[in-house]
Design brief:
Layout (H helix, E strand, L loop, with lengths): L6 H4 L3 H17 L4 H4 L1 H4 L9 H17 L5 H12 L2 H20 L1
């Protein structure tokens, strides 16, 4: 996606991209979780049901670009983006929970 400002970072170190990927993915997946009920600003970024959908769609586009740049992207993240693009709310919620569980596991390591 043009205009997202990731071009200068995609050619940089892979360490930076890893943390950018995890941060944006956490934000996107959290907008589908129970955290979104407690924090309205987070829930409003949900790309399918939020009041500020465009913010969530930008995050989905960023994740898509970062997955293309990285050789390793989780299957759950790929499925989450696929369900967001197709508008499948129920499956997107399931995949978002899976993504959050995977991220929590990877942080403990």
């Amino acid at each position: 996606m043009e205009g997202l400002g990731l071009g200068c970072f995609l050619s940089g170190s892979s360490g930076f991209m890893k943390y950018l990927y995890k941060g944006v993915l956490t934000l996107l997946a959290s907008s589908f979780s129970s955290f979104a009920i407690k924090d309205p600003s987070l829930g409003s970024r949900n790309p399918l049901t939020g009041s500020r959908k465009e913010k969530g769609l930008k995050n989905a586009a960023r994740i898509t670009n970062l997955m293309r740049a990285q050789s390793r992207a989780s299957t759950a993240a790929q499925k989450l983006v696929k369900h967001i693009k197709s508008g499948n709310v129920q499956q997107a919620y399931k995949e978002a929970n899976r993504v959050l569980k995977n991220l929590a596991t990877s942080i403990k390591r």
